[in-house]
Specification:
By secondary structure, the protein is mostly helical. Helix content is 52%, strand content 11%. It has eight helices and three strands. A three-stranded parallel β-sheet has the order 2-1-3, with helices on both faces. It starts with a helix and ends with a helix.
Length: 166
């Protein structure tokens, strides 16, 4: 029985060491830490850390209104802006990337903004505030919710450079 505990302990310690080592490597090489949603958007739109020559990047952040609510990626203020600028400035290569999320809050928007700076936006648009007034989204409620253990673990995994990159 004692041997089993030593083996399990050794496996746990080595796994923890490997995870910390990989986290350090990915931070050192400059991989972006990002929430899962941000990584999904980056992959979907094919966003690269290095901008192609002449590309002007606009990132939008916010809640359901900026996201486009139920009409999502097809119709949203970000898509309207992209269409308008395409018509108004046809010779410019303008890319609008929508990082807004339905049901998000200002803390998520701040986190998403910080984590997308890696992709070199030229202009950033924030459209927030609606969800700050909804039930259970007030400051005292959020502080209470953020103290829960599962929120802390979730926040830790979202900030992991290794997990986000893989």
């Amino acid at each position: 029985m004692n041997r089993i505990f030593r083996v399990v302990g050794a496996i746990f310690v080595s796994t923890l060491f490997l995870a910390l080592f990989l986290e350090g490597v990915f931070r050192f090489i400059g991989a972006p830490g990002a929430a899962k949603m941000i990584v999904k958007v980056v992959i979907e739109v094919g966003l690269t850390p290095r901008k192609p020559a002449g590309e002007f990047r606009i990132f939008t952040f916010g809640e359901s209104t900026m996201h486009g609510a139920h009409y999502g990626p097809v119709s949203s203020p970000a898509r309207w802006l992209e269409a308008y600028l395409g018509d108004y400035l046809p010779s410019r290569k303008i890319r609008v990337v929508n990082f807004a999320r339905v049901g998000s809050s200002i803390p998520f928007t701040e986190e998403a903004f910080r984590e997308t700076l890696f992709y070199q936006p030229d202009l950033v648009i924030f459209y927030v505030g609606h969800n700050a007034f909804t039930l259970f989204n007030r400051k005292a409620d959020l502080e209470k919710k953020n103290q829960k253990w599962d929120r802390k673990v979730g926040r830790l995994s979202r900030r992991s450079y290794f997990i986000s990159t893989v």
